[in-house]
Amino acid sequence: MTAAATPDWPAPVEVLNAAGTNDIVLTCEHASNHIPAEYAGLGLAPHELTRHIAWDIGVAAVTRELARRLDAPAFLGTYSRLLIDLNRPVDSPTSIPARSEATDIPGNIGIDDTEKNRRIERMFTPFHERIETLLDAREKQGRKSRIVGIHSFTPVFHGVQRPWHVGILYGQSKDYAEALMTELRRDPTLVVDGNVPYIIDRLEDYAIPVHGEDRGYPAVLVEVRQDLLLTDDGVQEWTDRLYAALTA
């Protein structure tokens, strides 16, 4: 039985526009940095939970606005990625990280299977079941979908500067990714590339392989550099850019 939602233990997924008419389905796994009080911040100082290690800065606002403007369903995670990463297979070493970037996560070190399974059952499984339910229903209606994940990345990682403004990550959907990059490159000031700053890897990624490729859907993951999403103007600018690319 699913536990009743409370302010400290919200429902594990925020669903927007479930009846949306667009064939695009948006996912935003790292939308929140919320950690229930009983976890005591996983032993981290409060300022650490405002960093990228806890969530993808700026993406929740972009996703909400894209869902509205596209008339597309969107699924947003409601817990910090430090509790369990919704975009990792549960058997990945980074699913519940003991270390993120250069920061140890004390509350994740040495957790037992009972606690791991609790997080899977309370956060991971219901999030993805809601997506599966929607995709199954659309298939029964004869509707196909495109999966677009919305994420952000740090401008510097382990001391290395990342020059890209946006990356489009893809596995089997090169044509779709190339089409989006072509549209984004209409602004010559942008540095746009494919499969940066990461690559899609079935061992380390979940939404694109499982909800996209396994169903034969076009599927990409959008990574916007997070320093570009720190202000309302930045969020609006990138929402406009992504909307234009996705509707071209």
TrEMBL record:
A Pfam entry, by short name: FGase
GO molecular function, one term: hydrolase activity
Record flagged with keyword Transmembrane: no
Native source species: Metarhizobium album
Keywords for this protein: Hydrolase
Presence of the UniProt keyword Plastid in the record: no
Name the record gives this protein: N-formylglutamate amidohydrolase
Region of interest: Disordered: 93-112
Superkingdom of origin organism: Bacteria
